[in-house]
Specification:
mainly alpha, two-stranded antiparallel sheet, 45% helix, globular, TPR-like_helical_dom_sf, SusD_RagB_dom, SusD-like_N, cell outer membrane, signal
Length: 488
Amino acid sequence: MNIINIKKSFVAVLTVLLLSGCVDLNEDLTGQPTPDKFFQTLTDFDSFISGAYTPLVILYGTDVPYVAGAGAEDIFTPVVRWKGFEEADINDVGNPDEITNELWNAYYSSISSCNTMIQIIKGNTKFQPEQLNPIEGEALFLRAFNYFQLVRWFGEVPLLLEDNQQNAATEPQVSVSVLYDQIENDLKAAETMLPIKQNDVSRPTRWAAKALLAKVYLARAGFPLNETAYYAKARDKAWEVIENDKIYSLENKFFDLWLWENRMTNTEFIFTFYASSSNGTGGYVNRAVRPSDAVEGGWGDFTGDKRFLEKFPKGDESRVEGTFYLTLSDGTPWEKSYAAQPYVGKLRDGGSKSGGYYGQPTSDKADGFYCMLRYSDLLLIYAESANLAEGAPSERAYDAINKVRRRAGLTDLSGLTTTQFDHAVLDERNWELAFECNRWFDLCRRHILKETIKNYYPDTNIDDHNYLLPKPIAQLTIMTGVRQNPGY
């Protein structure tokens, strides 16, 4: 998908119809595009699957997914109505639907487009299967990505596939293990269908499917399923990508990863969403993370946390400066800014529409980019899963984490016990992947949310119900098979 050139005229019309779940794909609706009218070329199929990205690109260009994970140490939000998320006590939030409904709708909207694409391909008689395999693999990959987010945010949710999504209003929610089974099956199929290389860097490759599957395996090995045999599967799947070292590599300078001008050419991004102000997917997160001080013209909706910055290893200044924005454009240090918190550096550069990495934003709909999976994450997935699968850190596991540490200007690790190495990997994930929607999920899958957050908010009540978000109240009436999570 070239997100800058989406053929949205068709996608916008047909996707709206299909999301309602009430359109017979074989029905000839006068004036409306149907499979027999539209899907005549491979470009038509390609255009349609592009629409499955749109709700995701829009979502990650907003505050929503970052604020939803603000119970972790990296993100702080001064917005009063979101403070419950910050303190992992969401019962205190007056209107959690402001966050949770946006997550729910974006993922299910994308799922619906994926399901429709899979259904249309199944009924195709015009093209050979191998011609449509890349598109079907893309739909399977995106469907797996969406359910992976939903199961980690909400736990049990309805499993809507191409054969039952017309019953979305009444489908019951299914167990977490069933959801993971489907995610795994979709990604295994996507591995065989997706190409080894894409001309368009925004489209997933076979390697992206393998990398995401490794991350799924790592999550399944932890809470709540605790199926520890999956650590070995995560290790092996991650290694399939790592051993082909000509596919991805760490950028020399961490800071350069987050420059808009490098977004298409860096060697580290495995799967990334690219927003465009010219096609309606431009995001505002670049402005939301900027200081609200007049010189910056931002909103300061969420920032880093000064306690997190205090613990952040200084090492090479490139990682510090690439992660945080510590000095305002007029020279004011963050301590003297309005929020008096270190600001987020990674999401700051939205390209020319936002004035660039250092300039004042000129638009709320910038050409941002939001990396969902990158090579350093995969190296750390390998290090963690190999250590836990084998009962001790191997030479390969040390090599994986030390590559990340060396780039960050930190010394190599050696001679650690299994537990020491495990703690080192989790810490490194915290520093390396800050503000990338990872830390909250790491705390949850390792079941260490309570002891970690207590260091920041000692008076906050945290129990197992906080490991999931409340399901959107609006959806409890729309989808009658959905039950609210315990504790809400």
